Amino acid sequence: MVYNWLKNIPWVLYPATCVACGQAPLARTWQRDLCEACHAALPWRRGPVCAQCGTALAGGEALHCGSCLAAPPAYDRVFAPLGYASPVGALVTGFKFHGRLAYGRVLGELLTEALASAQAAGALVLPAALVPVPLHRARLAGRGFNQALELARPVGRRLGLPILARGIRRRQDTPAQSTLDARARRANVRGAFAVERPVPARVAIVDDVVTTGATVDALARALRQAGAREVQVWALARA
Ligand SMILES: [Zn+2]
Ligand SMILES: [Zn+2]
């Protein structure tokens, strides 16, 4: 029930059109559905961030935010190149809830390129495998695809990492996190994931957007119980 359609869309049938400003046609050599101007104008995160949860810090000497110092999450660090600001929100929503394939392709490319650049700069420790945040099977059936898995595919191809999906599942079809506050989000996802397979010592969870981090925290806990010792989170955007 999982389709690998993102890599199968031929450019010749769907010429590049910018998903942000609609400009078309783009130069034949620019094989991406996002023009150069809109790419440069994306909400890239450049300021200091918490070394663990990746939330923006005001600056100064601190490496960790107050919340990670008080109650460290189960994951070790978050890599997220973009903020959750325009047009990222619209692209993620269009991909997840309206099945806009071109949006998903652009988002997968942005995450892949950011990770490959970080690796080239020596700023990224590669895990042994990727773990896309699973969807509950009822939600997967409704949507037809798992956006986290579709983002993980190009990353795995580019960095040569296997994707662990089988045996890692979401037990409950939890209410959408976006309707809840931070405390309710943590309660909402506690125990939501089951990892029914051994996992390597070093893994990276892949998700589209990290908001409070409650979901990836719950999955990281389950992965640690299954043998993971270092859990990174690789996401497109961090709110
Ligand atoms: Zn554009
Ligand atoms: Zn933090």
What secondary-structure arrangement, pairings included, does this model have?
Layout: H1 36-40, H2 66-70, E1 77-79, E2 82-83, H3 88-98, H4 101-120, E3 129-132, H5 137-143, H6 147-159, E4 168-170, H7 182-189, E5 193-195, E6 202-210, H8 214-225, E7 230-238
Parallel strand pairs: 1-7, 2-7, 3-6, 6-7
Antiparallel strand pairs: 4-5
Describe the 3D structure.
- The protein is an alpha/beta fold.
- The protein is built from eight helices and seven strands, in the order ααββααβααβαββαβ.
- The chain has helices at residues 36-40, 66-70, 88-98, 101-120, 137-143, 147-159, 182-189, 214-225, and strands spanning 77-79, 82-83, 129-132, 168-170, 193-195, 202-210, 230-238.
- Strands 1, 2, 3, 6 and 7 form a five-stranded parallel sheet that branches. It has a two-stranded antiparallel ribbon with strand order 4-5.
- β6, α8 (214-225) and β7 (230-238) form a beta-alpha-beta unit.
- The longest helix is centred in the middle third of the chain and has 20 residues, at 101-120.
- The two termini are 30 Å apart.
- The mean pLDDT is 88.
- It binds zinc ion (2 copies).
- One zinc ion binds next to α2.
Low-confidence runs of at least 5 consecutive residues: none
* Distinct ligands, ions and cofactors found in the model: zinc ion
Largest sheet: 5 strands, parallel
Rg value? 17 Å
The structural domain count equals 1
Average predicted local confidence, pLDDT: 88
Q: How many helices?
A: 8
Q: How many β-strand runs?
A: 7
